[in-house]
Write a structure and sequence with these properties.
Radius of gyration: 18 Å
Protein name: 1-acyl-sn-glycerol-3-phosphate acyltransferases
Oligomer: single chain
InterPro entries: Plipid/glycerol_acylTrfase
Number of strands: 7
Organism: Brevibacterium iodinum ATCC 49514
Distance between the termini: 23 Å
GO biological process, one term: phosphatidic acid biosynthetic process
GO molecular function: 1-acylglycerol-3-phosphate O-acyltransferase activity
Shape: globular
CATH topology: Glycerol-3-phosphate (1)-acyltransferase
Strand content: 5-15%
Largest sheet: 7 strands, mixed
Structural class: alpha/beta
CATH class: Alpha Beta
Number of helices: 8
Number of domains: 1
Length: 260
């Protein structure tokens, strides 16, 4: 289903001022990413054991993919990023373009993170850099909710349509990702924000099979299709969370209306 990224398409017209995915840049990003991952892994090993499941569901190296990740803890980007980088994939997380300034911006660019364009000349195509990365065979990581879930039991909530839009405009595979264990180690909430419980729980990251949206592809230009794909993705990730946490899946994930 991959779309043809021929001359003149969005993936090829992105300004290179913020981040680039040419071979030399990607090699540099990989080197910086390896340093960052080594430090992060050493830090995480002081708190937990990380297990990764479903690596066989990742497409071959060199094929672009969208990693749609469950977001329940401030530390889970580290967990998901480590699971990818230590298995040969440099993760390119989407981040607000306003973060790409100063020291933080230098770091983000150095490790190849992707700015989401909003109030700019390219605001009409806020996923332009992500499209470019996918066209170059890179791994793009998106949190479909756009923020941490606020559900008290940590179930996924409303998914925005950006992930679906990116898939439907590029044909890239969507790999759903769930994890469990971080909230036992670093509990969320104002009263527990400073609470840290090392080795209280293993952390598990699972990469699911690529989400099948072949039936939606012929209707990819219809607005309702983005909502249907977002809904399908949310229910898939919720089922993975239920399995990892050993809990029963709430019935709402089988009966809720399409995400808009």
């Amino acid at each position: 289903m991959r779309a043809d990224h021929g001359p003149g398409r969005e993936a090829d017209v992105v300004d290179h001022a913020l981040v680039s995915f040419d071979p030399a840049s990607v090699r540099s990003q990989n080197r910086a990413g390896t340093v960052a991952a080594t430090a992060a892994y050493g830090l995480m090993r002081t708190a937990t054991k990380i297990r990764v499941k479903g690596l066989g569901n990742l497409p071959p190296e060199g094929e672009g993919m969208i990693v749609a990740a469950y977001h329940a803890n401030h530390l889970d980007p580290i967990l998901v990023g480590l699971a990818l980088k230590r298995n040969g994939r440099l993760p390119h997380f989407l981040a607000k373009s306003t973060l790409f300034t100063g020291i933080l911006g230098t770091i983000l660019k150095r490790v190849g993170q992707i700015p989401v364009l909003r109030a700019s000349a390219q605001a009409g195509d806020s996923l332009a850099y992500a499209k470019q990365a996918l066209a170059k065979g890179e791994t793009v990581v998106i949190y479909p909710e756009g923020t941490l879930t606020k559900d008290p039991d940590f179930w996924p909530q409303h998914f925005k349509t950006g992930t679906a839009r990116l898939a439907l405009e590029t044909g890239a595979p969507i790999i759903p990702v769930a994890h469990w264990g971080l909230n036992e180690i670093y509990p969320r909430g104002d009263k527990k924000r400073l609470c840290f419980r090392p080795f209280s729980h293993d952390c598990v990251v699972e990469f699911g099979p690529a989400l099948d949206y072949s039936d939606l592809w012929p209707h990819r230009n219809e607005k309702s299709t983005m909502g249907e794909l977002s809904h399908r993705l949310k229910n898939t990730i919720a089922a993975m969370v239920a399995d990892l946490s050993g809990r029963e899946l709430p019935t709402r994930f089988a009966t809720e209306e399409t995400d808009e």
